[in-house]
Design brief:
Helices cover 52% and strands 17% of the residues. The chain is α/β, with parallel strands linked by helices and 538 residues long.
Length: 538
């Protein structure tokens, strides 16, 4: 076998050249792919970063308070979902802010306007009046006038028609007043309830009075509400700046006082404030004005003075006593405002407020008591001008509050029997038959014809406090009190002593057979919650 030797020789230069050519070829072949990848990467990154930039810009606009703009991104991935949520947030914020602005505008509007009529309200009126008074000084305007108007007997109309139709009547009258006013230099406001106030600038007193009379005449025309034909009238009072006063509040009060002067003269007229309303008269009219408003708003309080049966030292009943604490006048004594209420024809309205509060309250208390308390309410002689109607009203009140008539005690004064005596006696017999007890209050201080004690259905005599306070520690000056006790015993009437303040007075009364008492010795008149705490929660 022959052997052959093969020799291999490498040309590294040639190999290197070939490899370089291959590298260049592959690089040239790779460049399009790299370029394509770069383009794709750029497109992909742009498709992400550009929406993010738009989203960031949109979020910045939202942060600046520019809500409501919709960002359109046609994507169904996470970015699309994010954009949809941001759009929803922007819409929600826009709706919320718009509602908030609307609510603020409405709040601001209602802060200065009456809800029912849309007229400027009391707050707006005061600011406008102040502005006009300043303007009057600066521009030498002849007069600023305040015309105060109040619908006559609106409460009766409202109670008859109902509050809904009463509101419609207020709106109708507001529109009638508007139609009578000049386009310039007049400013109509509603003060609340049935009160309207108009400001006039640069009119003579004669011109303003003429406008007021025109309004009164127009308001008196029939009002048609649904199927009801209603006739109303309006009373007005005028005051002028600077003739009557230069003080804003006093100017309003003067117009108010003048308006109630119109009412006292029968209503449906305009009165101009004048100096003949002297301070005492003006104060009286002002008290009447405030009292009328307090009754309408129910801002009358009732206090309860316990009636004590001394033998058992037990509360057997309460006497309702009306109290009035006015925001402007402060505490007003019943001795002041009750005569004014009687003179102004407000006593029955005042009585209605007392009846509503007391019947409801005592009825509630009696639910938890084994021995029921009686409720004594005072009646004015003026309420007996139509006694039979009064009987019906009492029965309606007691029935409405499910108040047992045997718990109710009517307190009348002796002077009541002088008014319409025959009808009054008939009414008292009806009330007695209904189950109500009747007491003669302040016995011995008024008309004392003893014959009526046998004829009338009277259950109790109340010894006036003046006779009790006359009694001394040695029982001197006790003759009248002793005589009344003896009289009541002989007539088989109950007797109760008012104004008991001393232990010796209590001892005298018990020794002489008078066990029922009232007075500061036991308790002063108390508000309902204080009465509960003192006598019912122990």
């Amino acid at each position: 076998m022959e052997y052959q030797v093969i020799g291999v020789v490498y040309d590294y230069g040639l190999i290197e050249k070939e490899l370089q050519q291959e590298l260049i070829k592959h690089l040239l072949l790779s460049l399009p792919f790299i370029f394509i990848v770069l383009i794709i990467s750029f497109i992909f990154s742009t498709s992400i970063t550009r929406p993010i930039e738009r989203i960031m810009e949109h979020v910045n606009q939202i942060a600046k308070g520019n809500f409501g703009k919709v960002l359109n991104v046609r994507r169904k991935d996470e970015l699309g979902g994010l954009v949809a949520n941001i759009n929803h947030l922007s819409h929600f914020l826009k709706t919320y802010v718009d509602d908030l602005k609307k609510s603020q505008e409405e709040s601001e509007y209602h802060a200065y306007h009456d809800f029912l009529t849309g007229l400027p309200n009391r707050r707006y009126f005061k600011e406008e009046l102040n502005r006009r008074l300043i303007e009057s000084k600066e521009k030498s305007i002849r007069h600023v006038a305040v015309l105060f108007m109040d619908i006559d007997r609106f409460k009766d109309i409202n109670d008859t028609l109902g509050h809904s139709k009463g509101d419609q009547l207020i709106q109708l009258i507001a529109n009638r007043i508007k139609e009578c006013l000049p386009a310039a230099n007049s400013f109509l406001t509603r003060q609340g309830g049935d009160e309207f106030v108009i400001l006039f600038s640069d009119f003579t007193p004669e011109e303003v009075e003429e406008i007021a009379e025109k309004i009164i005449a127009y308001v008196q025309q029939p009002c048609y509400i649904d199927n009801d034909e209603v006739f109303v009238s309006i009373s007005s009072g005028l005051s002028f700046y600077p003739e009557h006063t230069t003080n804003l509040d006093t100017l309003i009060r003067c117009a108010d006082v003048a308006m109630y002067a119109s009412k006292k003269q029968g209503g449906s007229k305009v009165s101009i404030y004048h100096d003949s309303l002297n301070p005492k008269q003006a104060e009286k009219v002002h008290i009447e004005t405030r009292l009328r408003k307090a009754i309408q708003k129910g801002d009358i309080d009732v206090y309860y003075q316990p009636k004590i049966e001394a033998k058992r030292n037990m509360v057997t009943g309460v006497e309702a006593l009306v109290r009035w604490n006015d925001v402007e006048l402060g505490f007003v004594s019943p001795e002041v405002f009750i005569p004014i209420a009687e003179e102004a024809g407000l006593i029955h309205s005042l009585w209605e407020v007392v009846m509503k509060k007391t019947c409801s309250q005592v009825s509630e208390w009696n639910k938890d008591l084994n021995e029921k308390m009686t409720l004594a309410v005072n009646f004015s002689p003026r309420q007996f001008q139509d006694p039979i109607v009064l009987v019906d009203e009492i029965q309606q009140f007691l029935s409405l509050h499910r108040f047992d008539p045997t718990w109710f005690e009517m307190e009348i004064t002796e002077s009541t029997l002088l008014m319409n005596a025959e009808e009054t006696i008939k009414a008292l017999h009806l009330l007695k038959k209904y189950g109500i007890s009747i007491s003669i209050d302040d016995f011995g201080t008024g008309y004392s014809s003893l014959s009526y004690l046998k004829k009338l259905p009277i259950d109790c005599l109340k010894i006036d406090r003046s006779f009790i306070q006359d009694i001394q520690e040695d029982y001197s000056n006790s003759e009248i009190a002793q005589a009344i006790i003896s009289l009541s015993q002989s007539l088989k009437l109950q007797v109760i002593a008012e104004g008991v303040e001393e232990e010796y007075q209590k001892a005298f009364l018990m020794e002489n057979g008078c066990d029922h008492m009232q007075g500061y010795l036991f308790s002063k008149p108390l508000a309902a919650k204080d009465f509960e705490a003192a006598f019912l929660n122990s």
